[in-house]
């Protein structure tokens, strides 16, 4: 009996003792994998945050370059008009010069054809003093008139010279502006390429459905927080000195709002976003890159910056706790604090895409809650 027990212990005890280190190693390995996954997850979140910051920086740079380009285009248009007016003035001056030369030549030809005698011949002739006096007066008038014509011609030539100098200066200025424009376009091309690369890398990071859903929920949460903060600030501002006319209030503009831009609706308010139960809180309007985005109503810009999920975003406060949002822009042409009128150009639409969909994103909010923009906008066409 004892011999059997000893044999049993001799056979199985080493196996149990050997099993304990093996389980400990497996547990340690699992803990190691969990630690590695945590590190990778944290690194992935950090990488996403870095990419978001990089995208924000690049988008704002693109907006700045686009704004400079817009100013340069306006300056070039002004210089083109100035050059055209100077060239028209020069043409009129040249025509005036030709008329003056023709008149002077005609006078000289007339004097030559009539072969007027000199003053000395008239004095030595046997003509009466009265006739000599009349002839003397005639030649004095003739000389004075010719002198005035010569002076007028000299003034015209001087004007032509000044106009030519002005035209040269405008052309030089125009050339400088066009060179600046080319340089800005090159910078824009480079920044746009960098932004597209960053956007592609970011989209790759959140390509999974769960990741996209999480990102969208966070974006909506961030936007709601921003709107709440803006509404709080708006409530703290003093009321306008003059009372707003009833017909100018936003609440009375249902079905009358100007479209921010004309285009096909790519995503409707309330439609599903193919991710869980999330729906669109606004509308997405198809547009080409660089299309002018206009304010739908009078108001004050309370936000003009980049925001995750919405790109370059402008928010306008219209009073009565109404706000309109214009997202996914390529450049912002207004700053926070600017007052705008309905129809003012506030931005240029982009093609970076809200979730890979190009077009302008537009919302109408009341007390922070989204409302259907179509009910506010006038009918297109």
Automatic annotation (TrEMBL):
Residues 1-19 form the signal peptide. Keywords: Coiled coil, Hydrolase, Signal. Residues 280-373 form the M23ase beta-sheet core domain. Residues 48-89, 160-236 form a coiled coil. GO terms for molecular function: metalloendopeptidase activity. This is Murein hydrolase activator EnvC. The lineage of its organism: Bacteria, Pseudomonadati, Pseudomonadota, Gammaproteobacteria, Thiotrichales. The gene is envC.
């Amino acid at each position: 009996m004892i011999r059997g027990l000893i044999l049993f212990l001799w056979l199985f005890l080493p196996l149990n003792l050997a099993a304990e280190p093996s389980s400990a190693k497996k547990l340690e390995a699992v803990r190691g994998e969990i630690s590695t996954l945590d590190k990778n997850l944290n690194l992935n979140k950090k990488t996403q945050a870095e990419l978001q910051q990089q995208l924000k920086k690049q988008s704002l740079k693109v907006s700045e370059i686009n704004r400079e380009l817009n100013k340069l285009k306006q300056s070039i248009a002004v210089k083109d008009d100035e050059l055209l007016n100077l060239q028209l003035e020069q043409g009129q001056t040249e025509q005036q010069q030709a008329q003056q030369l023709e008149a002077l030549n005609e006078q000289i030809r007339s004097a030559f054809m009539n072969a007027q005698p000199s003053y000395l011949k008239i004095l030595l002739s046997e003509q009466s003093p009265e006739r000599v006096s009349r002839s003397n007066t005639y030649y004095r008038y003739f000389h004075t008139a010719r002198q005035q014509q010569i002076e007028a011609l000299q003034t015209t030539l001087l004007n032509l010279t000044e106009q030519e100098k002005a035209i040269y200066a405008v052309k030089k200025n125009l050339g400088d502006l066009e060179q600046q424009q080319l340089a800005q376009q090159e910078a824009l091309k480079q920044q746009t390429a960098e932004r597209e690369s960053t956007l592609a890398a970011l989209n790759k990071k959140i390509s999974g459905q769960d990741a996209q859903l999480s990102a969208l929920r966070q974006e909506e949460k961030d936007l709601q927080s921003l709107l709440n903060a803006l509404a709080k600030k708006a409530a703290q501002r003093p009321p306008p000195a003059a009372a707003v006319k009833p017909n100018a209030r936003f609440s009375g503009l249902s079905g009358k709002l100007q479209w921010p831009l004309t285009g096909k609706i790519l995503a409707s308010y309330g439609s599903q976003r193919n991710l869980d139960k999330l729906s669109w809180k606004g509308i997405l309007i198809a547009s080409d890159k660089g299309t002018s985005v206009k304010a739908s109503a009078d108001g004050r810009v309370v936000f003009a910056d980049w925001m995750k999920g919405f790109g370059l975003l402008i928010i306008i406060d219209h009073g009565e706790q109404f706000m309109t949002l214009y997202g996914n822009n390529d450049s912002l042409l207004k700053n926070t604090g600017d007052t705008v009128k309905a129809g003012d150009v506030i931005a240029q639409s982009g093609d970076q895409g809200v979730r890979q969909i190009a077009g302008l994103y537009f919302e109408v909010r009341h007390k922070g809650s989204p409302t259907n923009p179509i009910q506010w906008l006038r009918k297109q066409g």
